[in-house]
Specification:
The chain is of the alpha+beta class. It has a domain at about 10-25 and about 65-105 and about 130-220. The chain is built from five helices and ten strands, in the order E-H-H-H-E-H-E-E-E-E-E-E-E-H-E. It has helices at about 30-35, 45-50, 75-85, 105, 200-210, and strands spanning about 10-15, 95-100, 140-145, 145-155, 160-165, 170, 175-180, 185-190, 195-200, 215-220. A hairpin with a 2-residue loop joins strand 3 and strand 4.
Length: about 240
């Protein structure tokens, strides 16, 4: 776990990204595990819990459940997390945000596509002003295997990262790392993970785990989040 987030904090939590992204259901991992007869726990891996327990007679829900997104926290979950963080931050006006430089909208490798339903053509959307986009002249830094743009701003700016396709179309993108100036906590959404990790004081982690808006479990620095780290839900 601590290949992704720093050691030395009092406590840690793992926030599971909801399945069925883009749908209205925002399925929790615990719901999937209940359908398949699997056990939900802090080191659960989605590819394990979505597979029915052998001999349980449960049906495979995978054709009807989209996998959780990797590398980012959904806006609703990010908003809920930031509300908790704000209550445990001495100075929420000065935070650091790191965004992985490899996202397609930043490199120009991915261009969002638009389409229209049959019928009268709608008025074309106007392009968003250039100053609305992220300023990629920002400072950069590197960690093993990753390079990031670095930004500074108030905690609420965590919800402002993304790409303006047009004046009325915004694609949000949560920061991959962010922390306050006093380094009292740290949030990490590793690009290959379908969950977000938070390190901080015990009071903060307790509030995250107990939140009704987030699916979160306490976790330790020694826990494995590797592909085969879920030793409870064996294949």
């Amino acid at each position: 776990m601590c290949r992704t987030i720093p050691t030395g904090f009092d406590a840690y939590a793992r926030v599971f990204h909801p399945a069925d992204p883009g749908s209205g259901s925002r399925t929790r991992w615990a719901e999937v595990a209940a359908r398949t007869g699997r056990a939900m726990h802090s080191q659960a891996q989605f590819h394990r819990i979505v597979t029915p327990l052998p001999g349980s007679g449960r049906h495979d829900p995978s054709p009807h459940v989209q996998e959780p997104p990797t590398g980012e926290l959904a806006p609703a979950d990010l908003r809920a997390l930031c509300a908790i963080l704000r209550a445990h931050t001495l100075d929420a006006m000065r935070c650091r945000f790191a965004l992985w430089e490899g996202w397609g909208e930043l490199t120009g490798a991915v261009t969002p596509l638009t389409w229209a339903a049959a019928g009268p053509p709608s008025a074309p959307s106007r392009p968003a002003p250039g100053e609305w986009q992220l300023d990629l002249r920002a400072a950069r830094f590197e960690l093993p295997g990753r390079a990031y743009y670095l930004f500074t701003g108030p905690l609420q700016d965590a919800l402002r990262f993304g790409y303006w396709v047009s004046e009325d179309w915004f694609l949000p993108r949560s920061p991959n790392l962010f922390w306050p100036e006093d380094r009292g906590w740290c949030v990490a959404s590793e690009i290959d993970f379908d969950s977000t990790l938070i390190a901080g004081p015990e009071t903060l982690i307790d509030a995250i785990v107990q939140s009704d808006e987030l699916e979160a479990w306490p976790i330790t620095p020694h826990d494995s989040l590797s592909f085969d780290g879920d030793t409870i839900n064996e294949p």
